[in-house]
Amino acid sequence: DVQVTESGGGLLQPGGSLLLSCFASGFTFSDSYMTWFRQAPGKGLEWVSGLNLRGTAFYGDSVKGRFTTSRDNAKNTLYLQLTNLKPEDTAMYYCDKAGLRGQGTQVTVSS
Fold first, then answer.
1. pLDDT of residue 94
2. 91 phi and psi, to 5 degrees?
3. Of 64, 111, 65, 63, nearest to 89 (Cα)?
4. pLDDT value at position 80?
């Protein structure tokens, strides 16, 4: 089956850091443009970042300079490093391959 599985979420205080992972299976991960989205409570889906096949990353304005996405093709895994977290970063985070998403991983930032 083609699927992606997100993990690594948690409860953090403002200013904290977290590493999210997304394990991909059932497709050629190294040939795939991958994306991170998030959805805050009561809000729509927000694009967070994209990572192309050459490893070039793109970020939304709200996370630029604080989040970093990377990939390990040997492990079929996409990462999202979150730093300097803010309460407004609280959301369910999803990785995405052309519309295929997993169940997501919850990140909650609260003091």
1. 98
2. -175, 170
3. 63
4. 98
| Phi, psi angle pair for 96, to nearest 5° | -145, 135
| Spans of the chain, pLDDT less than 70 | none
Nearest to 8 by CA among 62, 63, 89, 81: 81
**Is 73 buried (19+), middle (13-18) or exposed (0-12) by CB count in 10 A?**
middle
Q: Round to whole Å and give the CA distance between 96 and 39.
A: 13
Any idea which residue has 């609280």 for tokens? Answer: 90
| Strand arrangement of the beta sheet that strand 18-25 belongs to | 3-7, 18-25, 77-82, 67-72
Ordered DSSP codes for the chain: --EEEEE--EEE-TT--EEEEEEEESS-GGG--EEEEEE-TTS-EEEEEEE-TT--EEE-TTTTTTEEEEEEGGGTEEEEEE-S--GGG-EEEEEEETTEE-S-EEEEE--
The residues with which 6 forms a beta bridge, in sequence order, are 22
